[in-house]
Amino acid sequence: MREELRGRAHVFGENISTDLICPGKYFHLRSDIKKLARHTLEDADPEFIKKMSPGDFVVAGKNFGCGSSREHAPLIIKESGVSAVLAVSFARIFFRNAINIGLPVLECDTSSIKSGNELLVKPLEGAVENLDTGDKIQAAPLMDAMLEILEAGGLKEFVRKGNL
Predict the structure, then answer these.
(1) Tell me: the pLDDT tens digits for 39-52?
(2) Are 130 and 117 within 8 A, CB to CB?
(3) Tell me, which fold does domain 5-160 have in CATH?
(4) pTM of the predicted structure, to 2 decimals
């Protein structure tokens, strides 16, 4: 994981469910993550994939990733090129699935971030800087074990490197 991530914000509201992240109508694509990722957040914003660039951020309010425990939800977010998800809070299972696949997720106050703002995020420090406004936001710290998993690139790589 890079120490600094830079990209544009794509802002969503509260209670963005795994059904909105990974539309059920594409369930038949679940064995082809690249194809499935072309539909990331399509039900929340049909233009998301067209608007985003690799390295951009998904930014949301409370309870991001609520609903079913679809492991595909964080996986397709990462596959789509999103470098991290920032939200006021996450559904517990989504949060853990994201860490396990190596997708940085940071809990912080996102109220001052607008779509299109350029952000500089330092996941290991939990620091978020809005380069357009100068606002600096401190995210809730991640446990050391979670940081180690993220630094390894996900739980599989963490275990593969002999960490368990």
Answers:
(1) 999 999 999 999 99
(2) yes
(3) Aconitase; domain 4 (3.20.19)
(4) 0.95
Residue 149 CA to residue 10 CA, distance in Å, equals 25
Residue ranges of alpha helices (H) inside the chain are 18-21, 33-37, 48-51, 72-79, 92-101, 144-152, 155-160
Q: Which amino acid is at 121?
A: V
Domain boundaries, the chain: 5-160
DSSP letter for 60, please: E
Quote the CA–CA distance of 17 and 67 in Å, as a whole number. Answer: 5
Measured on CA atoms in the order 63, 117, 37, 51, is the torsion positive or negative?
positive
* Angstrom distance (rounded) from CA 56 to CA 129: 14
pLDDT at residue 164, rounded to an integer: 67
Q: DSSP 3-state assignment of 1? A: coil
Q: Tell me, rounded to whole angstroms, the distance of Cα 123 from its chain centroid.
A: 11
Q: Please tell me the distance from the alpha carbon of residue 143 to that of residue 25, in angstroms, as a whole number.
A: 36
Q: Tokens 């960490």 belong to which residue? A: 163
3-state secondary structure of 153: coil
